[in-house]
UniProtKB/TrEMBL annotation:
Chain's gene name: mnmA
Domain of life from the UniProt record: Bacteria
Residues at which ATP binds: 6-13, 32, 125
Domain tRNA-specific 2-thiouridylase MnmA-like central: 205-272
One GO CC term, this protein: cytoplasm
Gene3D superfamilies, per the entry: Adenine nucleotide alpha hydrolases-like domains, HUPs, Translation factors
Broadest EC class assigned to this enzyme: transferase
SUPFAM superfamilies noted in UniProt: Adenine nucleotide alpha hydrolases-like
Active site: 101, 197
Protein name as annotated: tRNA-specific 2-thiouridylase MnmA
Reaction(s) the record says it catalyses: S-sulfanyl-L-cysteinyl-[protein] + uridine(34) in tRNA + AH2 + ATP = 2-thiouridine(34) in tRNA + L-cysteinyl-[protein] + A + AMP + diphosphate + H(+)
Length: 362
């Protein structure tokens, strides 16, 4: 097969590309330039989107003896990831920019271009597995639970997954690093990327403040209705947040307060006790079906609301093109804007059934 290997500059994508070459595929490496001003992205060799990462990706491709290109996706990245991130926070929601990047950039824009150029598949360093049952591609968790990325890939369609390759799905991170060293890849010990690449200093509040300005509002005690303080905008907060609330006086019971809800229209941020964060019902929009098969009735499943952790047994059903999810065990820190992924319980919870964007919780 003709394979386009997306090479971020990190160890995972480098080993994935090397495995594709070793498997006998005709591999071409590509690095995505995601900013018209590379200096505005995070600096330092962190394995994602920096100038240093592009150089690391090229060196890895040279070692493998494969063609290598840098494609400019800066405008698409700004529109589909950065601007979406800002708009979601302005609306009082909590987005996942890495999920959106996978969905809109790597497996929409990149895959579309790859197919148009005659490639059969896009290869990435994601930790997830693909299997085929009766010709239908299925997305599953990786063998390394600690690195599993099926959650951020769960919004992909069956057609997209049919043109995807995840060579690392059956490996652990430790094994991948060891293999990179054996292959002589200079990125073998390169640190993983954990930060948001377009917020170079890691200060999300500052970034959003510069984009959105100030929209003052009130901090309100959910139990008493008392005004506890003021803030510069709901974009400064996320559901479940405890620190940095700007509340000077302790609660009457001496217990910490947490952000319970955000009201972008009024500007109010409601805070209260930890137990009020418990969620048992989720309504989610824009459902996607990695296997191509929507739910036809209520189904027992495992729901996951964060990239790592945040799982609970649940019953889900499709109602008026919305996912209605009833959690058998409450979850906390569940916020509108986050994704919820559903896994089949009869496959050790590793088969992805669906993904959707959380709209409301109760």
């Amino acid at each position: 097969m003709r394979v386009l290997a997306a090479m971020s500059g990190g160890v995972d994508s480098a080993v994935a590309a090397a495995r594709a070459v070793e498997a006998g595929h005709d591999v071409t490496g590509v690095h995505l330039a995601l900013s018209a001003k590379p200096g505005t992205l995070r600096t330092g060799a962190r394995g994602c989107c920096t100038v240093e990462d592009a150089h690391d990706a090229r060196r890895a491709a040279d070692l493998m003896g494969i063609p290598f290109y840098v494609w400019d996706f800066a405008e698409r990245f700004t529109e589909d990831v950065v601007e979406d991130f800002v708009a979601e926070y302005a609306a009082g929601r909590t987005p996942n920019p890495c999920l959106r990047c996978n969905e809109r950039i790597k497996f929409e824009a990149l895959l579309d271009k790859a197919i148009a150029l005659g490639f059969d598949a896009v290869c990435t360093g994601h930790y997830a597995r693909l299997s085929a049952v009766d010709g239908v591609v299925e997305l599953r968790r990786s063998a390394d639970d600690g690195k599993d990325q099926s959650y951020v890939l769960a919004s992909l369609t069956r057609e997209q997954l049919s043109h995807a390759m995840f060579p690392l799905g059956d490996s652990t991170k430790a094994a991948v690093r060891a293999e990179a060293a054996t292959r002589g890849l200079a990125v073998a010990e390169k640190p993983d990327s954990h930060d948001i690449c377009f917020i170079p200093d890691g200060d999300t509040q500052k970034f959003l403040g510069n984009r959105l300005g100030q929209s003052p509002g009130l901090l309100i005690d959910d139990a008493t209705g008392a005004v506890l303080g003021r803030h510069a905008g709901v974009h400064e907060f996320t559901i479940g947040q405890r620190k940095g609330l700007g509340i000077d006086a302790p609660a009457p019971d001496g217990r910490p307060r947490y952000v319970l809800s955000l009201e972008p229209v009024s500007g109010n941020v409601r805070v209260g006790a930890a137990e009020k964060l418990a969620v048992t019902t989720i309504t989610a929009t824009r459902p996607s079906w990695p296997s191509g098969t929507p739910l036809t009735g209520p189904i027992e499943c495992v729901a996951q609301v964060r990239a790592h952790g945040g799982t609970a047994p649940a019953v889900a059903e499709l109602v008026d093109n919305h996912l209605q999810i009833h959690l058998r065990t409450p979850l906390t820190g569940v916020a509108p804007g986050q994704a919820v992924a559903l896994y089949h319980p009869d496959t050790n919870g590793d088969l992805v059934l669906a993904s959707a964007t959380i709209n409301t919780t109760a």
